[in-house]
Amino acid sequence: xxxxxxxxxxxxxxxxxxxxxxxxxxxxxxxxxxxxxxxxxxxxxxxxxxxxxxxxxxxxxxxxxxxxxxxxxxxxxxxxxxxxxxxxxxxxxxxxxxxxxxxxxxxxxxxxxxxxxxxxxxxxxxxxxxxxxxxxxxxxxxxxxxxxxxxxxxxxxxxxxxxxxxxxxxxxxxxxxxxxxxxxxxxxxx
Length: 190
Prior knowledge:
This protein has four helices and five strands. By secondary structure, the protein is an alpha+beta fold.
């Protein structure tokens, strides 16, 4: 193949690649323009107004107990202050209690449990800080997860259960923050 034919071939390939990129960029712009956003995409600044972010950052988390409560507290703080880290004064108090439940899902031939299903239920209430406190919102968040109990590998089983607990706590925290954001968005004077 001659050098002229080679350069023509590579310029055609470049043109086609640029056309594909332009088509993909145009398609992405069209989808974004119609309001499409992947469900698992991280929240963007356009999702909620700045006022909603300030209200979320003004939520103080009440006392939580145990290791699961500590993980939930950290996860909620991370999500609430990410909206507006400059907020200083707390105006709301979020009270959450975690209720974990365990259920055997699988058994080995000898009758021992091989799989556990964890359910984390978290009833929560949001109220204003003041005398008397005024209820703003309430609800219950629930998440499910499972993990295997590995035969003769104790530490692997413990790590699996701890990771399942972390995932559950993160799912519950995300659900609570989303519900709070919806509440603040629908009722900005709360």
